[in-house]
Amino acid sequence: SQYGGLKNEGATCYLNSVLQTIFHLRALRQAIYATPTAAATTPATAAATTPATAAATTPTTTGQRKSVALALQRLFCRLQAHTGQGKAMSGVELLDSFGWDSDDVLLQQDVGEFVNMLFEKIEDAMKSSPLHKFISLTFGFRYEMVDTIHEPQNEEQKAWVLRRAKDDDPAQFPLIVHEISELNSVSAWAEYKNEPEIIEDYNTSADFEEIEKELKVAQEKGDVTKIQKFEAILADQLASVNGKGHGRVCLLRHTRFCSLPPVLLINLARIQFDPTIGATVKRHGRFEFDEFLDLTSSCVEGSIDEAHPPTYRLFSVIVHSGVSAQVGHYYCFLRPELRKGSNDAMWYKFDDDQVWPCGPEEALQANYGGDSGVGRMRSAYYLVYIRESDIESTLHPSDVTVPSHVSDSMGDAGLTSLRQTISVLLPHQAATHAATSAATRESHAGEGEVSVSEIVRVRGAMVQVTVPDMQECTVSKLISLLNVQFMASGTNQLTDMPSAQEWFGEWFPPIYEQFEDAEGILRTQAVEDVDRTDRCYEPDLLLCLTQLGNHEIWSVLSGEDGIGKLNSQFLWRLEWIDVSEFAFYTKVYHLDYTPTGSERHGDPFLLNAYFDESVLTVKRRLCVTMSLEWEDVSQWTFIWVRHGVRNRHQIDDDDPVVGSDQRELLRSYQLVLIHPRADDGPEARDFRSPGSNLPQNAGIKIYSQ
Could you tell me which of 167, 252, 319, 320 has the fewest CB atoms within 10 Å of its CB? Predict the structure, then answer.
């Protein structure tokens, strides 16, 4: 199709159907373009939006939330620019202007309720402009109720009439049809509404009696001004055909349109609340609608403008497909090129990002609904009719140009995804800066024990951060957002690196020296037994983001790596790594052998170590930096495992974890820690996964695919 679709951002099919209808009402699009808008200064992480202001200026930059009017202008600008290309656009920017996040778009809303909400926001944006009455003049209608006495007994009763309508009464929209089950078509509903309603035991003297009471109160108080006022009202009332009224009688109430709009919105209220079951239900009964709708007989006599007779043509059909009110799918049928006096315009089906031409049967008859068969699955829910005399001005206005301030802003691509609040576990941090003394370390060196009583560390404290645009967010941007949040709360920045003392826990890496081998090639070797007092080893630390699932680390990202493709239902954790020349890091998971095989458990982590460093040194450091007990860690067995190959390489305490000449291990193998029992590994600390209902004291819930 030449027309572009709209991407479904979760469960936004209802919204896409409404937006396509509004966009192709070109007069409304023109008015939205003409609505004064300005750059919104509300950050995208805030919970509310500010509607358009009076001045038109350059719109916002990425990261700021735009007003609803400006977001609509930009979305329509993209749709208009790509007309003829059939390209689908994203409505994320508009969703964000509503204050919605990634969870809100997963909740399907009622089309009728959404139309009311959207038009209310558009009206708010137009308030301070000459367009402040545009919505009510384009879509609003007014009723007049005319009461007469049923079976009058005399000429005075025949003459009595009460009209209930004022020019300043607010216009109404949409027209809501509740009688889906009782009637079978829009035309039948119009005839039904023409029938008078019988009002039993109505006091026709109520207004006169109320004025008499007010006059009596004014007389008792001696309020001359009010006495004169109410006496004049009573005199006018007595002089009218209604006089004092005729007491309590039976009335006939005729409800008619006293004004009708150029565009008539009709909500076929198929989804309604059923008090017997305490839930909303969908009514599937067959309900027909025609291409032409004549409301002449439904208008007050003498109210019809000869230039605009109340005859309408069908323009849009919004369909709900699904057997229940809770689930289903919305799409719409439109005739964008409808012309006055012509019936050649093609129908198009707009189904999210897919648009294609179709016949009138698919747009009309196929959506009448029914209690069985295909009709039960799909039925029209919302209809848009255009008055025949207003088709050209509504669908083909002379000038639908994009405002310069909007077109100038289109270099800003806008949001590509909605704000999303994610949970992140912080890296391993020291709660106190005290470290084990050298004397303490030396006193246990022979046994391999390390005292951890003087260092209290916190692993896995959870924070929540709102990301404005997940698709554009990198690890660096995520860390910056967290730092802003930290500083706002008066705490240190997340990027405050651990000191060398905290990082190594006094178990420093080897000293590396260069030498020439027998062939004269310059090589590097580790020398552990040297005096380090005059040598200061400073790690080159980098904060990275890990994603965990099924008790292992799946991904390690850093710097400008994007996080948009990560699954937010899994656990995310920030970890420090040393990227200096002789350092390496590797993903580690814990394994426990059972009678039936083996199973992963515990808290996976990134192991930071150094080439040619012994397993024993790494174990000692882990005890200090991760607050583990030596009694447990000393029993761990380190094994390099190659996935998909029955190839294992066990390393003993005196062996290097990775020798200088074994770097291929890091590329092809996975480091596994074998436990004699499952409860001696790092435990999963308190964390509530976004997709989990576990209380925090239940520990980490790590999902596998």
Answer: 167
Are 377 and 367 in contact by the 8 Å Cβ rule? The answer is no
pLDDT digits (tens, 9 = 90+) for 244-279: 888 889 999 999 999 999 999 999 999 888 888 888
Q: Between 235 and 61, whose confidence is greater? A: 235
Label residue 115 left, alpha or beta by phi (over 0 means left) and psi (-120 to 50 means alpha).
alpha
What's the pLDDT score for residue 640?
92
CA distances from 342 to 364, 555, 680 (A): 18, 61, 81
Q: How far apart are CA 472 and CA 469, in angstroms?
A: 6
* Side-chain half-sphere exposure of 334, counting CA atoms within 13 A: 24
Q: Write down the mean pLDDT value for the chain.
A: 82
CB 569 within 8 A of CB 690: yes
Spatial distance between the Cα atoms of 298 and 134, rounded to a whole number of angstroms: 24
Q: What is the pLDDT of residues 351-407, one digit of tens each?
A: 999 999 999 999 999 999 988 776 678 899 999 999 999 999 999 998 888 888 888
Which pLDDT value is given to residue 529? 55
Q: Please, are residues 130 and 98 in contact by the beta-carbon 8 Å criterion?
A: no
- Cα-based torsion angle of the residue sequence 220, 221, 225, 226 in order, rounded to the nearest 10 degrees: -60
The pLDDT of residue 682 is: 66
121 — phi, psi (to 5°)? Answer: -70, -35
658-688 pLDDT, tens digit per residue, is 988 888 888 888 899 988 776 666 665 433 3
d(CA 614, CA 543): 25
Assigned token pair, 138: 């384009």
The CA-based diameter of the chain, rounded to the nearest angstrom, is 131
The DSSP 8-state label assigned to residue 498 in this structure reads P
| Spacing of C-alpha 399 from chain mean position | 34
What CA–CA distances, in Å, run from 280 to 22, 105, 165, 181, 368? 27, 20, 34, 15, 20
pLDDT tens digit sequence for 594-618 = 767 777 887 888 999 999 999 999 9
Specify whether the CB–CB gap between 672 and 647 falls below 8 A. Answer: no
**DSSP assignment, residue 685?**
P
Per the CB < 8 A criterion, the answer to whether 311 and 293 are in contact is yes
Q: Distance between CA 80 and CA 87 in Å, rounded?
A: 11
Residue-wise pLDDT tens digits, 302-351: 889 999 999 999 999 999 998 887 788 999 999 999 999 888 899 999 99
Q: Name, in order, each residue with C-beta under 8 angstroms of 137's C-beta and a sequence gap of 6 or more.
A: 171, 261
Closest alpha carbon to 353 in 89, 83, 15:
89
Please report which residue ranges of 82-185 form alpha helices under DSSP H: 92-97, 111-126, 134-139, 155-159
Looking at 446-539, which runs of residues are DSSP E strands? 457-458, 462-467, 511-516, 522-527
DSSP string for residues in 398-443: S-----HHHHGGGGS---SS--EEEEEEPPPEESS-----HHHHHH
Q: How confident is the model at residue 86 (pLDDT cuts 50, 70, 90)?
A: confident
pLDDT score, position 649: 86
CA angle in degrees (0–180, nearest 5) for 515-518-522: 35
In 599-700, alpha helices (H): 615-625, 630-633, 664-668
Distance CA 571, CA 687 (A): 9
Kindly state the tokens that stand for 600: 């992963």
Whole-model pTM: value is 0.69
Nearest to 291 by CA among 274, 311, 270: 311
Long-range contacts (CB closer than 8 Å, 24 or more residues apart) made by 495-501 = 495/543, 497/541, 497/576, 498/429, 498/430, 498/541, 498/576, 499/433, 500/536, 500/537, 500/538, 500/539, 501/435
